[in-house]
Design brief:
Helix content: 55-70%
Oligomer: single chain
Strand content: under 5%
Shape: flat
Distance between the termini: 50 Å
Largest sheet: none
Number of strands: 0
Amino acid sequence: KMGQKRQRRVTFNEETRTRTTYSSDQVQGCWYNDSDYHSFKTDICQTVDLMKHNFCIDEVLYSQRGLEKYLKDAARSQHEVQEKAWFVVMKRQEVGQGKEDPMTLADSIAQFYTNETRLAKMAAYLTGIADERYARSPVAA
């Protein structure tokens, strides 16, 4: 029927069966330890250093994905986008406070934010597409 919302319900069994198959040492071994984190940090620093010196990153031994924020220009650009989006939202809220219906104002703020962050969202989307293609490629296997 038009205009009526369909209700959905989810139920769960009150009793569940569990089976322990791992010892506590095995479970503990699944977590990263201080040595692992130190190794991660060392690898990240080496990769960022390669990026700073414009060395070609082969994406097999090294991945620059997510490390752009450690480069000054990229970090500055990302910070500028965040600051501008914040400013637009706060300014819009200030202008509409007490003058507009709260729901209309919230929708308006959301629209301003969406417009302001459109390019960043598109860049993130395209990066995700590239990551997916790489993950499915024979090189990644």
